[in-house]
Amino acid sequence: MQNYKDVLAEILIDSETLQARVKELGAQISQDYPEGDLLLICILRGGVPFMVDLSRSITAPHMMDFMAVSSYGVGARESTGSARVTLDLQTDIRGKNVLLVEDIIDSGHTIASVLNMLKTRNPKSLKVCALLDKPERREAEVPIHYLGFSIPNKFVFGYGLDLDEYHRNLTFVGVVDLDKYKPSA
Ligand code: IMP
Ligand code: MG
């Protein structure tokens, strides 16, 4: 994998801007769930850095769990149709206030499938918190109750988002320079 500096077209959202927005979202969520029973569910793997930072800025007591889904019949960078659970929750969500934490809503298929599946387990409430939204790419209508940033239709990486599994650790969100990026075969 190339060094990120060799494939970065531009920094779209810098670290300070991300951290400030995550704090705002955390404050809002803290206010909105005064009754407790809050469970943050991180969609692996892209949601990890966001959920860790978000959780630390939520003052309301809450739990965390993790799930992984994979899309059917897709290339690595696109998803179509429905998603399959590859790692399920350890928590019984019945009667809990569930907040799904996702890195980005693109076509919307991933989150739509997860919402449909989790609804059948009878949570008290079920909401979505996404760091990024690419509205131009939407194919499935999904509610986004908490949103960090709406972004243009560009492939981005960093702060959880990967470039072929690399560079999730970056503290900013950058745009990939597709002329310079050489996917390894
Ligand atoms: P959706 O089902 O099309 O909404 O896909 C959402 C998933 O696709 C996200 O959870 C990401 O894993 C991935 N994804 C979508 N856009 C990007 C991007 O620009 N960079 C990295 N991953 C992305
Ligand atoms: Mg993801």
CATH topology assignment of the domain at 15-70 and 84-150: Rossmann fold
Classified by CATH, the class of the domain at 15-70 and 84-150 is: Alpha Beta
Output the helix-strand order. Answer: EHEHEEEHEEEE
With strands numbered from the N-terminus, the spatial order across the biggest sheet is 4-3-2-5-6-7
Instruction: Profile the largest sheet.
Output: 6 strands, mixed
The low-confidence runs, each spanning 5 or more residues with pLDDT under 50, are none
Tally of separate helices: 3
Strand content: 25-35%
Q: Classify the oligomer.
A: single chain
Tell me the overall shape.
Answer: globular
Helix share of residues? 10-25%
In the CATH hierarchy, what is the architecture of the domain at 15-70 and 84-150 at level 2?
3-Layer(aba) Sandwich
Give the structural class: alpha/beta
